[in-house]
Amino acid sequence: MASATLRDVRFAGMATCVPRRVVSNLLDCRPQQRAERERLVRNIGIEFRRLANPWQCFSDLAYIAAEALLEKLQWAREEVDALIVVTQSPDYLIPATACILQDRLRLRTGVIAFDVNLGCSGYPFGINVLGSLIATGGVRKGLLLVGDRCASLEDPIFSDAGTATALEFSPGAPPMFFDLNTDGSGYKAIMLPAGGGRDPFNARHLLPVREDENGRWHYPDELILDGTEVLAFSTRRVPPAVEAILAYAGAAKEEVDWFVFHQANRMINETIRRKLALPEEKVPSTLRDFGNSSGASLPVTITARLREALSTAGKKRLLLSGFGVGLSWGNCLVTLENAVFPELLET
Amino acid sequence: MTDVHLFIENFLAACDFDDPPENATLQSVLKELPRWDSLAMLSVIVMFDMEYGKTIDGGHLKAAVTIGDLFRLLEG
Q1: What is the number of other CB atoms lying within 10 angstroms of the CB of residue B6?
Q2: Are B42 and A213 a contacting pair at CB < 8 A?
Q3: For chain A, which residues make up each domain, given as ranges?
Q4: What residues does each domain of chain B span?
Q5: How far is the C-alpha of A160 from the C-alpha of A195, rounded, in Å?
Q6: What CATH code is assigned to A1-347?
Q7: A123-162 per-position pLDDT tens digit
Q8: Cβ within 8 Å, pair B49-A271
Q9: Which one of B30, B33, B39, B56 makes the best mutation probe of the A interface by having the most chain A beta carbons within 10 Å?
Q10: ipTM exceeding 0.90?
Q11: Would you say B43 and A214 are in contact if contact means Cβ atoms under 8 Å apart?
Q12: Which of B18, B35, B50 sits opposite A274 (nearest CB)?
């Protein structure tokens, strides 16, 4: 799909939950890494991250966000017709986490619930999937839960978060515009090679495969991320896709209140912003305080930076841009009015 | 024609070395620089894109031996 429009779908609200535990990239590392970390923080722009406790799953964070959002919206649980979960850190490989959360959230059994396996690009895709169910009838109110438990103490990039977004059928709601794209030829740029059908877990995966410059051993069940490929992909693909959705929607940049990008790292995000000639005040960032929280980074940024502005009267237009694993990239242009935004939740 | 000295200056600024070499030339070997690592490579890709309007990728950087090899990418 290149571009598409959804009508009669209203963005009703959003809630974000992050772990209470804050990790500092400068302080929570070996003393001999300090100089290297200072250079890293200067360049990637990530100083603090949120780290879930070992027993917490993504779904625990998303559950808290969903409960808070349902309460704020005052939606009855039997009104919810669909529950879409976008994550790459499910509770189990089988069954879908959406099924577990249907029961945990005490939604009725008549609900559509399934997982979508996408990461950093996932938020616009999730809005499109749930919005399409609503636009085509049948589903009147739905929840989209997006996020990952992807942080570790050692890795300086990733941060944990779980988010909930509510969409509902509302005749006459401003149209939502989408531009969604995939290029699987680059799938090796971000991948977790072990544990799937191609290379099922076995004893061999218990052995480390390489030692990095900091003396840390890496195992086959860890995410592989080719930084140069991801940077080249992001800065090449995202700016023209943003221009494309604006052209498709017939919207000028000046007519968009905020451009919210996936929070990858400062080099990627600044290059995208500069290529699009967007003023800094229109491009909110949470990289310094929340790092890269995968698919949740858009809701994290909206909740942490725009919640108060979005809670004031009047229509606000947001361009939401996700990009990453797949490789995939997607943009969504939405108009918000009277949507609810509970305060940032911590657990 | 691209200024060599400006290119080297931009290159060193992009790499953000803790202890930048004072006498870097086109003949300087990348692996002998104080920290020619993945972070420096990312910054150099951005530098090529934003300063010179040239798209390069990790393959170009891994194939380069000297700063001069990078400079010549501007001509390709």
Answers
A1: 10
A2: no
A3: 1-347
A4: 4-17+29-73
A5: 22
A6: 3.40.47.10
A7: 999 999 999 999 998 899 999 999 999 999 988 999 999 9
A8: yes
A9: B39
A10: no
A11: no
A12: B50
